[in-house]
């Protein structure tokens, strides 16, 4: 029997939840006991219930032609509607996991309202809107023209398919987790709309459309196929598969350098779902290789990846240290989804090891333990800090995924495959395995104790218990006892140990999980290290000075730390001749598990270092990665970095506003306008240019100040005619010729003073780069508005 038929039969015969994932237990069958995860889940429910549902629904009513019952949230207004889908998913998960009455009431209310919107779209827009359920601003213009192959309105909008994908997922999750058949019908009607709206597009047009971020639309159609068995949905899933990623990944080619990370990961979740249901080897290989490429070469010690939302090349990984826009929370959310899917078809310990690391160190760390707010970027830069959202204000993408992150902690603790039960995570919980008629209680305070205990509390059954032997436990150190008798095994770390027997009430399985200290290097920057204890990343608090915007407002850039960047050359530096010198110097603090002092560690720029779990460090500046040098390296380092840091911080202090051309989010934030303009990257920096009489422009803040300059970054060895004009609010500032200007292969920053008559009385200006006839603008790598040096 092929895998798909098996899965489909399972869906047909499953409980009311009708799960798509046959190896997972329904959320209601896994009860969280006291642990950091239960605490985070319960706080998250309180946070979710602070949101105003009618504001989340406002964009859907507006696009359906109705008067909203409340105003839309102003933050990220161009992406209006995306949070509603995430919120619906989070409600459904919490209804299933906790039977929370308030969450259920809100979920049912949203489904009723959304069903009415979908029906209104069908009635009011018969030519393009049958089954449509989106809150995208200007929906009618976008979809009616895209249907005919005209992408102008589509490209002018903010990632339309990404936006609607969240509502697709929300409807699916209401059905998946609560068995709501109305949500299932709405989901399938929405899928039918997606097929209809793209039916006339050629393969070339589809791939062009998919060049714009589109979430995991391929996953949605694969899910619809598994729900129904209707082949039109798997055909749609494959049509929505982006070959720019699929083709090289299926051949083992890593082409991720300088690609927007969270644009790619959801696509690959879809690849794996298609692989799972069709066994198409192209999709199988692409999903597996992508996971390996990201987790092995592109992930940090806490499981996250990307800087400034992009995968850096090897040469650009130092950006993690220089920038405050570290790994994005959405990336880990989606990598965990991909990991769950891969584990379902190949239940390997490496997947659970990665899942555990990311769950503890990234996902747990992105919740404000007091307010429940969510984190967008987790800075890696020494002595930076995290910024948290506030309910009903910040509406970032990572707010939406964060709502879900803390709602499904019980989803991967246990899984089952045929007659085997997999113990994947060491989290205090109770499993009710209804199919086997047994209940299992896991007692542990892991990671604060190096053990866990499983007790069969009800029933009896024959099955194989698969206990994960984590990669962070040394060879031969794992101990397992069954009813007090030691188990003999021949497995190595990074595997599962199977115990096949008849289990009965009262059986006790004890697992000893010794942890030790280890070092992990920052990818491609070996002088920077992270300190691990078992799977737990250890960090250190470094103070609370100038944490401006730590609780974000609803501004467009509120998710980025805006307080002072403390100089790298004054951050603590470890001086050691060997890594073992570091790991051996950690001294446990009595009666405080996972807390360590470092009295014997030599530090330059010393602070009182107390190492603790990174996920516990909140509302503070911190150290995650440490520069580690021997004495000779240290003296050379000081001479070079002091000068570089002085210049960088001086420029930062003069900067009022800036935009990075070619990078998606900064350009959206600065209202990019363009004609005949292209982007790319070179030497790990992004650029934008325009030709054929084209232009591009940005809106930049001046804060109402005068005596300002415009700084533009160029590469010093461009080919071809590079002649263009720069305008401020329609008035020419300067004509510039970069044709063989420097003939040097490095970057140059050029500063243009802005006359005060172009600034007076203004809080912002529009800076336009206009190509001259038969010439090209740029390439432009960076644009800043600066205060003039006095």
TrEMBL record:
Gene3D superfamilies: Galactose-binding domain-like. It comes from the Bacteria. Residues 543-626 form the DUF4986 domain. SUPFAM superfamilies: Six-hairpin glycosidases. Keywords: Signal. Residues 421-515 form the Non-reducing end beta-L-arabinofuranosidase-like GH127 middle domain. Residues 650-786 form the Glycoside hydrolase GH146 substrate-binding domain. Residues 1-16 form the signal peptide. One of its GO terms (biological process) is carbohydrate metabolic process. Pfam families: Beta-AFase-like_GH127_cat, DUF4986, DUF6805, Glyco_hydro127M. Residues 29-410 form the Non-reducing end beta-L-arabinofuranosidase-like GH127 catalytic domain. This is Uncharacterized protein. It comes from Arachidicoccus soli.
């Amino acid at each position: 029997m092929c895998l798909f038929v098996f899965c489909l039969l399972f869906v047909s015969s499953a409980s009311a939840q009708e799960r798509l994932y046959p190896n997972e237990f329904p959320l209601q069958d896994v009860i969280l006991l006291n642990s950091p995860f239960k605490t985070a889940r319960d706080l998250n429910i309180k946070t979710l219930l602070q949101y105003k549902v009618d504001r989340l629904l406002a964009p859907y009513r507006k696009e359906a032609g109705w008067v909203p019952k409340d105003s839309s949230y102003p933050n990220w207004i161009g992406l209006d509607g995306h949070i509603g889908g995430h919120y619906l998913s989070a409600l459904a998960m919490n209804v299933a996991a906790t039977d929370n009455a308030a969450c259920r009431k809100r979920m049912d209310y949203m489904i009723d309202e959304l069903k009415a919107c979908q029906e209104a779209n069908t009635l009011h827009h018969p030519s393009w809107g049958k089954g449509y359920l989106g809150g995208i601003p200007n929906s009618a213009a976008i979809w009616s023209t895209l249907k005919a192959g005209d992408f102008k309105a589509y490209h002018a909008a903010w990632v339309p398919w990404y936006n609607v994908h969240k509502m697709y997922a929300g409807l699916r999750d209401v059905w998946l987790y609560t068995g709501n058949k109305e949500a299932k019908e709405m989901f399938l009607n929405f899928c039918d709309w997606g097929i209809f709206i793209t039916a006339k597009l050629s393969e070339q047009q589809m791939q062009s459309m998919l060049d714009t971020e589109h979430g995991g639309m391929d996953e949605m159609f694969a899910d619809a196929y598994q729900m129904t068995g209707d082949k039109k949905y798997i055909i749609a899933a494959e049509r929505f598969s982006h070959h720019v990623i699929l083709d090289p990944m299926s051949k083992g080619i890593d082409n991720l350098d300088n690609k927007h990370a969270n644009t790619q990961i959801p696509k690959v979740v879809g690849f794996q779902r298609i692989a799972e249901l069709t066994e198409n080897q192209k999709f199988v290989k692409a999903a597996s290789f992508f996971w390996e490429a990201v987790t092995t070469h592109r992930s940090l010690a806490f499981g996250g990846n990307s800087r400034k939302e992009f995968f850096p090349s090897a040469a650009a990984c130092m950006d993690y240290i220089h920038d405050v826009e570290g790994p994005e929370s959405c990336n880990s959310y989606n990598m965990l989804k991909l990991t769950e899917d891969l584990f379902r078809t190949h239940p390997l310990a490496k997947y659970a090891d990665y899942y555990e690391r990311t769950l503890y160190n990234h996902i747990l760390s992105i919740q404000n333990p007091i307010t429940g707010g969510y984190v967008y970027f987790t800075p890696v830069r020494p002595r930076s800090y995290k910024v948290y959202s506030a309910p009903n204000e910040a509406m970032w993408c990572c707010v939406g995924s964060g709502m879900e992150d803390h709602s499904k902690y019980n989803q991967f603790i246990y899984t089952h495959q045929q007659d085997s039960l997999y113990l994947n995570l060491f989290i205090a919980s109770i499993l009710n395995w209804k199919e086997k008629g047994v209940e299992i209680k896991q007692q542990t305070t892991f990671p604060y104790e190096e053990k866990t205990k499983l007790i069969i509390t009800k029933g009896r059954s024959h099955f194989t218990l698969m206990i994960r032997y984590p990669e962070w436990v040394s060879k031969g150190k794992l101990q397992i006892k069954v009813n007090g008798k030691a188990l003999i095994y021949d497995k190595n770390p990074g595997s599962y140990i199977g115990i096949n027997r008849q289990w009965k009430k009262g059986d006790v399985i004890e697992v000893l999980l010794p942890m030790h200290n280890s070092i992990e290097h920052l990818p491609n920057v070996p002088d920077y290290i992270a300190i691990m204890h078992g799977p737990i990343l250890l960090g250190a608090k470094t103070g609370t000075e100038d944490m401006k915007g730590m609780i974000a407002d609803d501004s467009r850039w509120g998710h980025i730390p805006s307080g002072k960047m403390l100089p790298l050359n004054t951050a603590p530096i470890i001086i050691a001749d060997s890594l073992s010198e570091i790991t051996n110097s950690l001294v446990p603090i009595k009666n405080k598990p996972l807390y360590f002092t470092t009295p014997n560690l030599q530090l330059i720029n010393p602070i009182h270092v107390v190492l603790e779990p990174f996920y516990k460090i909140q509302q503070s500046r911190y150290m995650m990665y440490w520069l580690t040098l021997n004495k000779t390296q240290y003296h050379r380092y000081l001479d070079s970095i002091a000068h570089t840091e002085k210049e960088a911080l001086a420029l930062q202090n003069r900067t009022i506003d800036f935009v990075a051309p070619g990078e998606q989010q900064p350009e959206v934030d600065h209202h990019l306008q363009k004609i005949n303009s292209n982007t790319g990257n070179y030497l790990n920096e992004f650029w934008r240019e325009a030709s054929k009489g084209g232009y591009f422009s940005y809106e930049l803040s001046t804060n109402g100040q005068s005596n300002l300059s415009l700084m533009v970054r160029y590469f010093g060895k461009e080919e071809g005619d590079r002649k263009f004009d720069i305008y401020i609010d329609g008035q020419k500032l300067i004509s510039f010729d970069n044709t063989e200007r420097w003939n040097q292969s490095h970057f140059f920053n050029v500063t243009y003073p802005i006359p005060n008559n172009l600034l007076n009385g203004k809080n912002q200006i529009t800076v336009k780069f206009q190509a001259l006839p038969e010439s090209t603008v740029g390439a432009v790598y960076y644009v800043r508005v600066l205060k003039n040096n006095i």
